[in-house]
Design a protein that fits this description.
This protein has about 200 residues and is of the alpha+beta class. It is built from three helices and nine strands, in the order αβαβββββββαβ. The chain has one domain: Immunoglobulin-like (Sandwich), CATH 2.60.40. The longest helix has about 40 residues.
Length: about 200
């Protein structure tokens, strides 16, 4: 066959393309997750690094002016176009290798909120919030994949498939005048080590 080397080269290129595509699809969420983890732990949300196993709530000023633009006098900050203009963000990164953590949420009195748990492969494996657990105060026992033991009385268990967990909370802000109330509720979402 005259062009046998071209057929072999073409076959190798197809196999390489298929393998590369598979690896890209498989590892892309993990790469994005690691980038986000580094951003939280090193840069934070604008006020410096967020220590591991700590939740940080974006400042009222950052929420009010998400694009860091000055607004004309008398205009609504909530009307500012931005990535997220109606929910305050709370976030952090968990390391469950040293043991479980307890997430406490206050009574939100019917206000929309959610706390999302995501593993390093970008799988959302649990939610606490209005649509899943209600708006009452509660404590949630977050455990890693190797944890064995008894869940403390009065707590619901959240089992993570990985020891590394991204936590993102969102709290609805009804209006500019409601921002301090929503911020106060967001600051009451806390993480503590087991037994504290």
């Amino acid at each position: 066959m005259k062009h046998k080397h071209l057929i072999i080269f073409g076959s190798v290129m197809v196999v390489a393309w298929v393998a590369g595509t598979f690896l890209f699809i498989f590892f892309w969420p993990h790469l994005v997750s690691n980038h986000f983890k580094r951003a939280i732990l090193v840069k934070g949300f604008g006020d410096g690094p967020v220590p591991i196993n700590t939740l940080y709530t974006e400042s009222q000023k950052l929420f009010a002016e998400p694009l860091h633009t000055s607004l004309p006098h008398g205009s609504s900050n909530l009307a500012t176009v931005g990535v997220n203009h109606d929910t305050l963000l709370t976030g952090g990164w968990l390391d469950l290798s040293k043991g479980p953590l307890v997430l406490h949420v206050p009574d939100f009195f019917g206000r929309y909120y959610s706390v999302q748990f995501t593993d390093p492969f970008d799988d959302d494996f649990a939610y606490v919030g209005t649509r899943t657990t209600g708006t009452q105060a509660g404590d949630y026992f977050i455990t890693g994949p190797d944890w064995k033991g008894q869940v403390p009385s009065g707590m619901k268990q959240i089992s993570s498939p990985d020891n590394s967990v991204l936590v993102l909370g969102r709290i609805l802000v009804y209006s500019d005048s409601d921002l301090p109330t929503a911020y106060n509720l967001a600051k009451q979402i806390r993480l503590t080590p087991r037994g504290n």
